[in-house]
Amino acid sequence: MTNRMMSARLRKRGAVWIIHALLAIWLVISLLPPVMLIAASLNRTALFRSPMDLLTFRDFTLENFTQAFTRGDFWFFFTNSVIISASAVVITLVVCVPLAYGLTKISGRARAAVSFGVLAMRFIPYVVLALPLFLIFVNLGLSGSRTGLLLAHLSIHIPFATWMLVGFFDTVPQELEEAGIVDGCNPWHLFWHVSLPVVRSGVIALAILVFIISWNEYLFALFLAGNSAQPLTVGITRFLGGAEAGAEYGVIAAYAVLVIAPVILFALTANRYIVSGMTAGAVKG
Amino acid sequence: MVIVVGTPLVMGLRYSLHRVFLYDFNNQVFVGLENYWKAFADPLFVNALRITGLFTLGCVVLSVGFGILIAFLLNARQVKLRPMWMALFLIPFVMTPVVGGIAWRFFIWQQEFGVVNQISSYFGGGMPFWLLERDTALYATIITNSWHLIPLAVLVFYAALTTIPDELHEAGRVDGAGPFQALWYIVLPILRPHILFVSIIIITSAFREFDMIWALTGGGPGRSTTVLSIFAYNRGIANQDMGMANTIAFSMFLIMAVIAWLYITLYRRTLGDKA
User: Fold this and answer.
1) Which residues of B touch A134 (CB under 8 A)?
2) Which of A115, A123, A154, B134 could join B260 in a cystine, given CB atoms 3.0 to 4.6 angstroms apart?
């Protein structure tokens, strides 16, 4: 082996190391905040402590979790979060899947206009909707209700979902539906048995994304939830006032871990759908 | 759909042209553009506008820069298990922003035990109160929010990079291009429309950001991280001045509409270049 070949091989191996080292550094930065939360939730701690103390589980305990469950109305906030997020997913799908399918059937200007409108809605800052909704709900008697909060969520989901689903339905090959027509399918059959199965994984991806967005939502909840419809995101921020003094710091961490648990689990188990859904949205640009 | 989004928008415009106070809700007086004149003459509004601009700009620069870099590394031939890396990289993006803000506040920026200051003091550096000082709070919120948004940029850039044919990289290697030349001369030109696209989604998201900043600083210290969303909240809910709050919000809508229009024009031109 000549010297030159060896040095080239060494250089290549060096490049592999550098690439992986850089990726690993980014991974540490990405995961440090959630990992520290988990570590703090599993340590007996009332005051801030050094990262190493927490990561070595010097004072391991599960007590923070029993506290988080029993104090701070966890189940009240949890119920609101689950009901709002689950209803948001169901209603968004029921409304947007047929709507998007219908949009792909009309053509020309009408469709371009609708797609433009849908795209434009995605640029609207949430506070622009939240403030008037607050006043409208006061008038309608919907303020502080889960129904009101759900309606606010739908105002973000419906444009987003329609936009994505039109992209998915566009990928259904024309020939497939034509074959269906030849076979004597009625429009309902074409939709349910021919087109929908093709976009199935897209619809799953969308359902997951809608759930995550609703679960994580905070601004609308702060404006519209009043005292009876607050989700977990509001529940956790109620602790913040007391946290400055370092009080109940392990309990807040445990509470926070419970809030992010569902979305993190989704990210780890269903990431294939999340990646494909988000990429599909991106490619459509 | 028109009803769901259109109603609040129209009502928002209407409220912004009235004097509306929460404590005297039934007494609404039409005042035309008075709220708008007042807002633009208000140094606090101008300050919020400036902070929002800086915050958005910072997030775009960091997200696009790191997004390209990480996607480029991830796309290297030698990297195995890419779906696994990607799944883990996505976590900051799906993690609830208020909780992300709390985690950074407690464990990263915290003055005595936060990771940043622990590292800094290990190397003999200072230990500032990152979130409690006017000079640093905005930078800390920009970095935290970029942490949340970078995965989105990585995802889009990575998807775009996988469409670059291997031959192109091969040709670059034959021509003796190192990794930096490859990044500069092969990858960046191909990513140009995607850079534009990522920029607009980051701008849209950062411009309206509320949750993350609220959890980190609540808009303080002073007003050094009071972006327009937080300013509108303070005016509308805390000060009960709904007319002014809707004016601030509707101004945000108008600014965003201009940005969106610019983007669509630019995007069409970029695509036109390619065709």
Assistant:
1) 236-237, 242
2) A123
